[in-house]
Amino acid sequence: MSIRLTVLDNIKRIAEEQQKHLAPLSDDLVLTESGLDSLCFAILVARLDAELGLDPFTTEEDIVFPVTVGDFVRLYEGAAVDEAA
Amino acid sequence: MKRPEPACLSAALAAAAAAGRPLGRLAGPDDAVGFADLLRASSLGGADLTGRSVLIATRAQFAAAVALIELDGRARRIVLCPPDLDPAHLPAIAGQAGIDAVVTDGDPAAFPALGVSDVLRCGPLGPAAPVAPSRGTEWVLLTSGTTGAPKMVAHRLSGLTGAIRPAAPDAPAPVWSTFYDIRRYGGLQILLRAVLAGGTLVLSDKDEPVSGFLARLGRHGATHVSGTPSHWRRALMSPAEAAFDPGYVRLSGEIADQAVLDALGDAFPRASVGHAYASTEAGVGFEVTDGQEGFPARFLAEAPGGVELRVVEGSLRIRSPRTATTYVGEGSPVLADADGFVDTGDMVALRGGRYHFVGRRGGIINVGGLKVHPEEVEAVINRHPRVRMSLVEGRRNPITGALVTATVVLEPGEAPPAAVKAEILAACRAALAPHKVPAILSFAEALAVTQAGKLARPGASRHA
């Protein structure tokens, strides 16, 4: 599964588990308006670390915090590139 | 009925023998001796350690128990080393406790240099003239902290034995045993019961597999058996559990949750299952025998057995004649508050007329500013019938600081682990606030248990 699909799949599952009403996912969707709270994001980051072996929030220097779903996906795609380099 | 106060263990045994009460035996994996025989025997070649400060540092519990009975009432102070003590701590312990004699069952020449003139090897029992006890010996137990040097906790025999009731006159003599080492508070309570209330004591050995110990309990017909909930969960996982049939099952040292109480009730339908609250510092607080987790809130008003309880900022405090007298050593913390209450650091919450233990003050996981006690989550997980034991930990997280994770040991069963996992998490979501539900749950074959019989909690400092 691509990083994008893994991220989106986890977002949907966590929203369901946490009984959050998730806004339709698109790259432009602002994360703070997605329906996910900070606990959901914490879980998302932990699960992505477990599944992808990536935690850009901890490993990246000069991190630019993602604002939209598209930013979030690109952050992980960038981390994967750094990891492979 | 009040039990007469013994001056020392050998005096208690002598009084029982003089009263015509049959005395039991002390049975280790390889050795056994009648308690009555200890009155006229020495494992130290009759060496006189009257008035000395003695470190008992043996590998075997049997040797430690024999030396303890021989020296109580003669030595000024006895320091009991648990078997897993890091030898690196010995010089500090010997220095702070003013040790001037060591008893070991190993090679005295191989014993670490402590600047102590007498290092005695305890050997087979030989005849010795009874020596009149001359003093109240101070007993020093070491706490089982996972980090740093252990604390030395001083007790008097009267405090250590304060919760022990005399045997009913017509009752058959019990056969005691404990998963604990007798050099820890929980195990020492059982040795003292065997000496003071009568009966035989079956000792475990730290290198003995659980199945072997359980089989031995069966052969000896053990009737009264104590251990931590972790000890008991491990015993319940062993096929050898069916080999013995105790009448009395006691839990202490960790939170006894409803799941383990119920599992023990099912496994030993004939037994009364009780859980006791005790710690090395606070002594025996109270015992709960109604089969329910936690303890009735009325204990705070009733002060059962003269043990006064307070809850201050969520933590249980205890004042009683059974608490330790002091910590030994310079720079030690103060044991009790200004009113004489010992702060146990065990956090309780009042629900439905009962106080429930929710965890250690130092063990809290902070999820974005919200507190989680690992034990309260474990209690929910452990309710699932397929779960034998679980460990909940904090895991660093860049968003909330920490998240709750769980590692679970399953019993064999038909449903696939993925289905069990979904059920466990559903139960957690039903019972717990969202931040307390494990964000990651994995399965393991086993969980580490410390030498003290408690679930190993990496990174957490736990006592007693």
UniProtKB/TrEMBL annotation, chain A:
Record protein name field: Acyl carrier protein
Organism per entry: Methylobacterium oryzihabitans
TrEMBL record, chain B:
Keywords noted in UniProt: Ligase, Membrane
Pathway where it operates: Lipid metabolism; fatty acid beta-oxidation
Origin: domain of life: Bacteria
Record PROSITE patterns: AMP_BINDING
Principal EC category: ligase
Primary location class: membrane
Gene Ontology MF terms in the entry: long-chain fatty acid-CoA ligase activity
Residues forming coiled coils: none
Pfam families cross-referenced by the UniProt entry: AMP-binding, AMP-binding_C
Membrane topology category: Peripheral membrane protein
Subcellular location: Membrane
Cited CDD domains: AFD_class_I (cd04433)
Domain AMP-dependent synthetase/ligase, chain residue ranges per copy: 134-289
Keyword Membrane listed: yes
Protein name, per record: Long-chain-fatty-acid--CoA ligase
